[in-house]
Specification:
By secondary structure, the chain is mainly α. Helices cover 65% and strands 0% of the residues. It is elongated and about 65 Å long.
Length: 110
């Protein structure tokens, strides 16, 4: 495992722990607490918000990891001649992938 991946996971764990403990201190400025839903609609809204939070956090971790790996793989090299690689246009598979995957994520959130 890479150090940055572990760091991202630790950050997510700390944020989740803070979210869970923030409501238990009893020093809230408002009597309403989003981490302690009291009504039936609040329970379903809370469940949906947790689902969205977990989904977005998972996407963030995967994307951050992917960006980190690519930045390490394609970093500047001393023997690089700085010329452009051959350009390929019209890849239907790539176009379809980066259109369908975000649509599926959005459909899954709703």
């Amino acid at each position: 495992m890479n150090g940055s991946h572990i760091g991202a996971e630790r950050t997510l764990v700390v944020l989740c722990a803070l979210a869970r403990t923030s409501g238990s201190s009893g020093h809230s400025a408002s009597p309403a607490n989003i981490f302690d839903p009291a009504s039936t609609p609040a329970q379903s809204i809370f469940g949906l918000s947790v689902f969205v939070l977990v989904t977005v956090a998972a996407i963030f971790i995967v994307e951050f990891r992917f960006a980190h790996l690519l930045s390490r793989k394609f970093r500047d090299r001393h023997d690089d001649d700085r010329s452009e690689p051959p350009q390929i246009y019209g890849s239907n598979q790539v176009e379809l992938a980066w259109t369908v995957i975000p649509v599926l994520v959005v459909v899954g959130l709703f």
